[in-house]
Structure formats: structure tokens, C-alpha cells
Amino acid sequence: MSTQKILNGNQTIAEAVRQIDPDVMAAYPITPSTAIVETIAKFKADGLISGEFVCPESEHSAMSVCIGAASAGGRVMTATASQGLALMWEMLYIAAGLRLPIIAAIANRSLSAPINIHGDHSDTMGARDSGWIQIYSEGCQEAYDNFLQAFRIAEHLDVRTPVLVGLDGFIISHSMEVITVEDDDEVKKFVGEYKPVYPLLDTSRKMTVGPIDFTDYYFEHKRNQIEGIENSPPVIEAVGKEFGQKFGREYGFFEEYRMDDAEICIVVMSSAAGTCKDAIDEMRSEGKRIGLVKPRVFRPFPHHKIADVLKKQKAVAVLDRSSSPGAFGAPLFTEIRSALYDYTERPKIVNYVYGLGGRDIKVEHFKEVALKLEKIADTGKVEEIYGYINLRE
Amino acid sequence: MIEIRFHGRGGQGTVVASKILADTIAKEGNYVQAYPEFGVERRGAPVYAFIRIDDKPIYDKSKIYKPDHVVVVDPSLIEAIDVTEGLKEGGCIIINSEKKPEDLKFSNKFKVITVNATEISVKHKLGTLAAPIVNTAIVGAVVKILNLAKIGSLLEAVREGVPTKPEDNAAAAREAYESSENINK
Asked: N or C end of chain A: which has fewer CB within 10 A?
């Protein structure tokens, strides 16, 4: 039977780990993801999980342990944030290149300098070309649900690609909410047994993992890797539907909130989308035709699906919780703007960076964005394509 | 929706207090969100926790700037910071203090309610006079004063939520609950 519990984001991930009981968990604790690792260590000490818990000397080593263990044939996970994910960098690419279905929970946090422990998406956005599937969560329940689904997606034979699940540092990782924890056996049944395809420990079939691959075949192997993530959309969709049938909470690539007759729209991911929903409700009660699109899956990016929803809007604001210095807009914006290029009918579109280093975003900020969108919709003119929210200038 | 801000000092269990309060409320089927504000964590530094309570799902993830009520776990904080910042007119200041409400110099825009949580805690062997662990007593008082839940839910949440001495903590919470008055009465 499912139970209602008060848990913070980190505890929901640890709870999911306890239920799944992966073969190997390797992690080096870092704020704000520390409590995930700490709670798993406690579960292990209390005998609640049987998998190996490895605490190496750095995040680089933690991901290396994950790669070794996954190559050996284990179901493997880790958790980290910020500088920890940055230190894993070269190993992230190796995990994806070797097609190892490793799962990582990331308590999204800013990158130094200046040093800051609070939530933004700089860490995972920096890893967006590493070949990992990226799923973002609005709150504790979504973090739990996404983490359970991640194993099914990563381990699917057509995909075999690592998945990271983002939960905003502190705002979700340390925020306690009432969440539904599903029954242990039902979770185990949903996630299923893991059957590795080419485990190194199968000595009847000896092979080499990670040999040199020069100009003759590297390109083809990279192409094969890309195919894995390209195969993932139908799997992500099917897993999200099945999750809904089984547990009553269905998931897709993004959530549309009050978009039915919307003329202007805000696109924002993760925890800020929750606050945005309250802002949309308030503005709807004032008669404004405004809606929200909340992307959940950032890699693979659902280009056509999202463009189909946005193309009829008069004006769209894409809000990014990371910056891409020198680029033509921040990561989410460039994806969406590019996705709309092939449509003759398309909205005016602007980009606002918000919340770096955990700077708060409130209902009133979304209302300010809406005022700008209304002006753009009325005049058909974009004065500033790129701006910032709640920033001293 | 009810929004409450907790003020304490690092090491006093303010975060545990907010979790126990959240647990108490969740046990009665309401929605709740508890969000501790972390800076550079060090013992004695002012810390905050925000709590939202509603009978429907809570989506807002921003901090609380205009609380309905504030709870002050450590009375010495009122000399260091303005605990009433943003507090709505008519809102409660529930403060751990041996003094009478009128002896604390707060604006009469607010209802000041004092709870001698330190005395209750020490009586139940929770810490010492110099370093009392007052979080369960203060939560007991808050639940009664604001009429947030029944005593059964409170005691269950206390027993499950404290790292040690579940019965002593439950006794402290009960005494604070029983010796407090509901503001609506």
C-alpha cells in the first residue's frame, strides 16, 4: 500500500533508492545533495539495503566506480551537485559513450566562482552535451517519481543511456512536503529486474570495455551512441504513461498549465514552475489569457512537441535558471527558439535569466514577465530579447 | 493558506521543530510545506524556517515574506533582528520567554503570546538551563495557539520526529499544548 510521508527532496530520492536497492551506490557527499548519500549510508548500516555502498575520495572517483560497476553488470546510481558534477565531467562522457545505464540524482546548485551553495541549473546545463538524458522535477513528489522512471528509461535496450534527475538545490532538496511513497513491492515490480547486456563478469564471453577507437570507427560509435538517446522519446513516453496507470501520476515531456485558450505563455522548468502556477491562477482570475509550459525532459529535447504547443501563442517568455555567457540566449531559450524556426506561424519570443545562486523568484516576478509579454503581444515588437529577473543592475 | 516563519539559532533544533510541525499537520490530511533557510551553517547564527499550511496542494516555492504568524524559538533574537519583518497586522508573535507579553516591546499591531518553553523543556530533562532543547515544547504551544491539529497527531509526530528521548519530548509538547490558549477562543 502507498503511504503519505513528510519528506524533503533528498529523502525522497533516498527512499526510492531503498526501494530499488541498486547493486552499487557510489557517491561523495556535497551540499545540497549530502543528505541523499547520508541517508543511503544509514540504510546500508541499518541493513535495509543489500547493495554495495562505496564512498570514494572524490566525485570523479565516484563516477569512475559507477562506470566500473555498471560495466561489470550492476544496476548503479550516484548523487551529487554543483562542483561535484563538474568534477565528474570527463567520466560523464565515458558513462554515456559506453552506454551504461547509470542513474544520477542531482540537487541542482550554482557553480563557483563566487562560491555559493544554493540552487540553479548551471551544473546540469553544463553537462547538457555529455550524452545523458536529463529530467527535471518541480517538487519532492516529482523527484521521487522521476527517479523511479529513470531506471526504466536508462535500462531499456533501445536506449541504454545514463539518466540524471534534477531537483533544485535547497528549494526541493531541503523542502519538506507531503508525498506519496508507493509500496516497496509495487516499486520493485515497476522498476523490474535488471538484466545487463554485456556484463564484464560474464567470463564465458570475454570482452574489452573502452579500448582505443581512432579515425576508423570512433565516428560510427559516436553515431550509435546518439541513436540511443534518439530512441528514448517513445520509451520516456511509454514509461510515463505506465507510471500513471500504475500509480496515478502520469508524466510526459512537459506539462501544459492552463494553455487551452492562452495567447501569451511562460516557459519555465523545475521548482519555479510551481510558483508560476500560482501566478497564472491569479492572472487568469483577472481575465488574462496566459498559460505555462513546464519542460520536464530537457535531453532529449522535445522540439516538435513543444513547438506545436507554442506556435500559436502571440508572445512567449522562456525563463532560464542558468546562463550561457556569450551565447544567443540561455540553454532552454536557444532550444525553443530553434525548435520554432521551421514554423511560418510562430510567436514573438524573449528570454529571461532568473534565480542564479538561489535568488528567489516570486509570484510578482511572473506578473512582471506577463506585463512585458502583453506589451509584446499588443505591439508585435520585441525591444529586448534577453533580460534578467529580480536582479540589481 | 497559513504562512508561518520560525526564528531560531543554529543548533537549537529549529529545523527539527518545523519538520515536527509539518508532520503534525500532515497527519490530519492537510497539505504542508516546510522549508528551512540555510546560510553558512554555524552554531548560534540566526536561522529561519518557513511553513505553509493549506487544505489544497501548495505550489508556491518562494520564501515567505509576509507571514501570518512568527515563532521565536530564542528570545535573545529580538535584540539582534526584527522578527516582525513583513508580519501581517493582527498576526501572532509566539515567543519562548519567561516574561509577560506586555513586558516585551512589540507593536500593538500584533498579538504577542509568550510560552515558557525553556522552563518546560528543562523540567522534562531536555537540555540544561544554559542550553535547553525547546523545539518540542514550542511546537506543542504553536499547535494549540493556532489551532492547527489535535494533540494526538502532535504527540505522534513528536515521538517519531525527535532523535532521542521520545517520551520526554512528548511530555514537554503535551505540557506546552495544555498550558497554552487557542487565540480564537
From this structure: C
